[in-house]
Amino acid sequence: MSTEGPHATRLRDGVRAAVPLAPGPVLFGLSFGVLADAAGMSAVAATAMSATTFAGSAQFAAVSVLDAGGTILAAVLAAVFLNARYVALSITVAGIFPGGRLRRLVESQAIVDESWALSGRSGRFEWPILVGAGLFLYLLWVGSTALGTVAGGALDDPDALGLDAAFAVLFLALAAPYLRGRRALQAAVLAGAITLALTPVAPSGVPIVAAASACLLGLRR
Amino acid sequence: MSTWIVVVAVGLATILFKAAGPVFLGKRPLPVRVRGVVDLLAPVMLTALVVTQAVGGDGELSFDARLPGVAAGAVAVWRRAPIVVAMAIAAVVTAAVRIV
Fold it and tell me: What is the per-residue pLDDT for A209?
């Protein structure tokens, strides 16, 4: 990195800010590895997904669809729909990335919900906090995913441990903060209803993709 | 092997999404209506996943041991328990019901 000196210390501030959050990516990385294994994804593929996607909820979504017997297309679409919000998120921090396009492309990958939130704590978004925190969380996420695939391989039947119910609650907890808004709540109820209605009649994975249409409620002003 | 298609496709899309602001679009905000739709995608997809993960079956709705676990976990989420605690509660309740 060309910016030694002040930036080097500030990156460290980002790492320090993210330390209290460390249990999150470690535990979720481990569980992602276990679920990916149960869904038939190889250890290398699961770890590669954490290294390239680096967005927990979408990764869980993709393997959840695969685990339920959904198609490749349904798994991809579910994850892509979930991650589209990063377009809006990345625009809010567009101005803080220095350097050329390639460097910005690489460093923008440090954007995850947690690093984004930490970087804006002072009232304006700070590049060293975002990149420092993001890099720290990234290493934990990828490392614990790799470990989780090993644990997953050792488990005979993860569902006997109630992991399927645990992942339903994970999605619920991730959805909860959004549901305080009236419009988001309406859209979520519609999405839930679409999923319930289509599950008995459509192939696995299709109900989730169809439920995405509920976001069109956002077209209303 | 086909899972690699998921890894590559989702990875590429996410890399481009994260780079959208810093590399491609700059600080220009999304049009209001687009923003309205994008903002709803996460709650919509997560809710659909809750439903399939809780009562989805092989081409049918299946109300089984998952349900009491998810209900217990939902109460924990509502009481603002940490996510990992809520997940553990759900897993323990569901596993217990399966044993009985």
Answer: 94
Range of the domain at A77: 6-158
Residues recorded for chain A: 221
Residue A202 inside a domain? The answer is: no
Shortest CB distance from A178 goes to which of B27, B43, B76?
A: B43
Tell me the three state secondary structure of residue A98: coil
Stated length of chain B: 100
Distance from CA of B85 to the nearest CA of A (A): 10
This prediction's pTM: 0.90
Q: How is chain B split into domains, by residue range?
A: 1-30, 32-100
Separation CA A116–CA A133 (nearest Å):
9
Chain segment A44-82, per-residue pLDDT in tens: 999 999 999 999 999 999 999 999 999 999 999 999 999
DSSP class per residue in A11-75: HHHHHHHHGGGTHHHHHHHHHHHHHHHHTT--HHHHHHHHHHT--HHHHHHHHHHHHTT--HHHH
Q: Answer yes or no: do B33 and A218 touch at CB < 8 A.
A: yes
Contacts for B55-58 with beta carbons within 8 Å, 24 or more apart? B55/A196, B55/A199, B56/A68, B56/A195, B56/A199, B56/A204, B56/A207, B57/A199, B58/A69, B58/A204
Instruction: State the total domains in chain A.
Output: 1
Tell me whether residue A13 is in a domain: yes
Q: Does B47 touch chain A (CB under 8 A)?
A: yes
Question: Is residue A149 in a domain?
Answer: yes
Tokens of A106: 């690489």
Residue A66 resides in a domain: yes
